[in-house]
Structures are given as structure tokens and as C-alpha cells.
What does this fold into?
Amino acid sequence: MPEAGFAFCYRFRVRWSEVDPQNVVFNARYLDYGDLGLTEYWRAVDFRNPNAAGPMDFHVAHAEVDYKKPIKPDELIDIWCRTERFGTTSMTILMEIHGAGDARDDLRAIIREVHVHVDLDTHRPKPLPQSVRERFTAFDARADIVRRGDLSL
It folds into this structure.
């Protein structure tokens, strides 16, 4: 379980195809997991619907992974997501990958990604709307945690 400040968690099971010959999740898959968590986090925030900001496009400008402990095949994994900071045209998403459950010491990796709001015609950054900032800030301040994914296990 992550430190305080996370209002979103997505749970999934590691598939055999994600494991390398050393019987651990291949390092490049961690960014796949980050993308999965981010996609579900953004879906939960629901900032792209017609009543919110509408269609928006982002490019990843920076991604980093800090590996802590290996992930094994068939494990249940929780990925916790929140917006760490806003820039003029960007938002930094913090994701923590943990073994599923309540063990506070089961941190597997920390992922940070900077997503830049862009105009797809020019591929130039454009300002992040205030309504998007407000929507993410309000979501991340929730007292109740939104849990998605394979929760039946």
C-alpha cells in the first residue's frame, strides 16, 4: 500500500508473456504497467468527456522507473496513481507499483511520467486548461479510494 495521497488504485495479474528468462517481469514492461495505470486513472477522473475538457492529446516528454523489487509471474499487482504537479502545459503523474494487499513494505517500483498537452496538428505544447487542473486536484483529494481492475481475486 502506498504512502498517503493516492486516491486511485488499479489491480491486475501479471501474465506469463510479461516475464523474462530470469522468471521476473521484463524491465520494459514496467512502463506498460504505467500506461495501464495511467489510462485507468484518467478514465476514473473522466476529464475528457464533453461536459469536462473534451478531446485532449498528450505526448510523454519524460518517463522514469525506479525499480525496487522484482515482480513474479501470476502475481496480483496494485498500481497507485496521482498527479504530482502541474506545469503550464504539462502534468507529472506519480505511480507506485505494489504487490496487491496491505503490506506497506511491498513497493516494487516508482514511475514518474511528464505528459505534455499538445496540438496534434502542430505537435506544439499548449496550455493545460484550468478545468483539467481543478478536476485532477479534486479527484486526488478524495478521502475514499477509487479501486478498479481485477478486484474479485
